[in-house]
Design a protein that fits this description.
alpha/beta, Spore Coat Polysaccharide Biosynthesis Protein SpsA, Chain A, 8-stranded mixed β-sheet, 10 helices, 8 strands, globular
């Protein structure tokens, strides 16, 4: 891969640069159709949609292919590995990573292409709202959005991971996502990207499911998988997978 200096020396993608959407999946047949529909309804169409599947047994691969996505098969090693696998196969100058249980706004691709015209912008993330969320859930996500935006403005880019993007050159210069991390891997790459340029938070917000909170409980999810793991990450730069191994909620 190119080194950081090579990434700095490259011009930004030309206007109309191809955008690749990368979706890591494992048994996402229930949520994936809504995401793919929202990606197909973009005001600016992506060049391709890549579904990096990790051994689904519920028809995810067949569903994705039927809706025009390119399916990349692989082993089940976590979403970080799936994102890296998709990035290696992608042909776009801009790589957009979206979780399968999200629904994206219609101007997402257009907004990413527009902000990437600034040569110092090497990546960014969207905001996020709970799909069909209760008042308490919306308040919780409002706080989380504020935290993400504040840290990024203060020079410590924070990336919740629901939907984010990088220039291909920057992603490769960073060596991709540290896929041995099962939590905070998206925060990690956002922090590391400071050496290359500016990481931004877009005003667009994706809808995401509350399935993890509702399956495993708010207390466990917030205290262990978000607060405890994030504090440990900022203190040590690591989130050991033997201590933090979140179970999928389907």
């Amino acid at each position: 891969m190119d080194g950081p200096s090579a990434a700095r020396g490259r011009p930004g993608p030309p206007e109309g640069a191809p955008v690749s959407i990368i979706v890591p999946t494992w048994n996402e047949a229930k949520c994936l159709p809504a995401l793919l529909d929202s990606l197909r309804a973009q005001t600016r169409s992506p060049a391709e949609i890549l579904v990096a599947d990790s051994g689904s047994t519920d028809g995810t691969q067949e569903l994705a292919q039927a809706r025009g996505a390119i399916v990349l098969e692989g082993e089940r090693k976590g979403p970080g590995e799936g994102r890296n696998r998709g990035a290696r196969a992608a042909r776009g100058d801009l790589l957009v990573f979206v979780d399968a249980d999200c629904i994206v706004p219609g101007d997402l691709v257009e907004a990413i292409v527009a902000v990437a015209e600034a040569p110092d912008v090497i990546g960014g993330a969207t905001g996020f709202v709970p799909a069909q969320g209760t008042l308490a859930e919306r308040a919780l996500f409002l706080l989380a959005n504020g935290y993400q935006r504040a840290l990024t403005l203060w020079g410590y880019p924070h990336n919740a991971g629901f939907c984010f993007f990088f220039r291909r050159s920057a992603f490769e210069a960073l060596g991709g996502i540290r896929d041995e991390m099962l939590l905070n891997e998206t925060h990690d790459i956002a922090l590391r990207s400071r050496t290359l340029g500016r990481f931004v938070i877009l005003p667009q917000r994706v809808q995401t499911s509350m399935r993890r909170f509702r399956t495993y409980g708010y207390l466990r999810t917030i205290l262990k998988e978000y607060i405890a793991s994030t504090i440990l990450f900022y203190a040590t730069g690591r989130t050991p997978s033997d201590r933090f191994r979140p179970q999928p909620a389907r």
